Amino acid sequence: EPEVTQTPSHQVTQMGQEVILRCVPISNHLYFYWYRQILGQKVEFLVSFYNNEISEKSEIFDDQFSVERPDGSNFTLKIRSTKLEDSAMYFCASSEGQGAYNSPLHFGNGTRLTVT
Amino acid sequence: LAKTTQPISMDSYEGQEVNITCSHNNIATNDYITWYQQFPSQGPRFIIQGYKTKVTNEVASLFIPADRKSSTLSLPRVSLSDTAVYYCLVGLTGYSTLTFGKGTMLLVSP
User: Fold this and answer.
1) Which end of chain B, N or C, is less packed with Cβ atoms under 10 Å?
2) What would the mean pLDDT of B55-63 be, rounded to a whole number?
3) A81: Cβ contacts below 8 Å, ≥ 6 apart
């Protein structure tokens, strides 16, 4: 079964540094997402991406965050200047599309970001 | 955006059937109901989705009454490996942002 893959599985960075989290969505999927989960808390929506642009973003997704689909397979989340409170598990997800059939999200296993 | 309400936790024993109910009183006409399972340090995993009546797959069944204001995930004969958090989401991919609530922590004991 095709799956969403994320790299690295664990990233440690110092406060103020830039990080790029990478994701390879399922190949025929058209919608891409980033969610995050702070330890012990619920999964929070960050951003959705379709047709090479952001469809929706949450209040968490401020100017420090950006997403990009640099080629036909990768989908990245960049945090420009990390803060301690950015420490969390970041999940990438993808879905086939939209329409009468509701295409469920398929999640990767996440990147654990630790900001020191 | 349809808000969902689920029990915070449930306990069960191996071999029992577990039913987790989710309330979504303001579900919209086009919204689907989707359930996910999450193990610690893993991403949520799609279990089942439905629009109305009953849906069954190899893992679970989903019961949705006619008014669609609630839904029940049924896990037959649970095992220890079914211990996880289960989330009920309501929405339509591509049209609404799918938001996770706190989910239901299911603990299966021997």
Assistant:
1) C
2) 96
3) A16, A17, A18, A64
